[in-house]
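Work Package 3 (structural annotation) set out to generate three-dimensional models for the target panel prioritized at the project kickoff. During this period the team completed the workflow that converts sequence records into discrete structure tokens, so that structures can be stored uniformly alongside our sequence database. As a representative example, we reproduce one entry of 303 residues exactly as it appears in the project archive.
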Amino acid sequence: MSQHSTPALSWYESTARQRIEGLLDARSFVEFIGPEQRKMSPHLPMFDLPESFDDGIVIGRGKLEGKEIFVAAQEGKFMGGAFGEVHGAKLLGLVQAAERHKRDLVICFDTGGVRLQEANAGEVAIAEIMRAIVHARLAGVQVVGLLGGRAGCYGGGSLIAGCCSALAISEHGRLSVSGPEVIETNHGVEEFDSKDRAFVWRTMGGKHRYLIGAVDGYAEDAIPAFRDAAISALGAPTALTLDTLRSEQARLEQRLKRFGALTDGTQVWKALGIDDPQAIPSLPTDEFVALANGVRENTHGAR
């Protein structure tokens, strides 16, 4: 565990600014386009919805273990961290700046996807951010995603996460293209009961995602633990090449073949060779990581 003066606050319970403050070296954060500039969504007032002075995302630069990086943190407590025009433009500009200045980037995801009220602008932003991350990685920039917020990482946010160099997640984190309510709405409660919280976490939660190799690191629900996870990920750079993409595609095909007929996380864990899959949700972090590292699928960046 790195030495850091910030108390061990829960990552899940913390705000975007608290996460950044605890993630970076003390007093090193410089915010870009802060609340004092009042860059708010131009679309929300017509729906009589409240606005936020930072539009639900905090961006800037700071130091991590003395190294200058860029950082972004979504505020899941504002509209579920959803992407709109300004929110997306701030993250896009930061990714482009990371490429231009050759500085690594850490993104603290906490999002349900795109705002319905700004759907077109949000979808365009998602596509542009994905392209910008690919360009940044090709230029040698590492883009690390941290997942453990209240809103999870869904929709377009999960697509952006899939473009990252590495991902770290906590037990509270959730990662999926479609959220539980979306699946239930489109395919019925028989397909996916969004109110079954245990089932949601067995399907989309941090432990499951770590076991199947969909993320690269697993962290305790504490800000210092996520700081350590970010340092570790940035210290193990990964290249983006054609061979990487081919490896990802092959691994996704293998995952579908191996687990495609299974309907619950416990079945997947059993298939991985875990003798008592029912015990996985209750295992403390150290015990879970020790067990998982002995059976989990190797990561090749395939999300």
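Residues 119-138 form the longest helix (20 residues).
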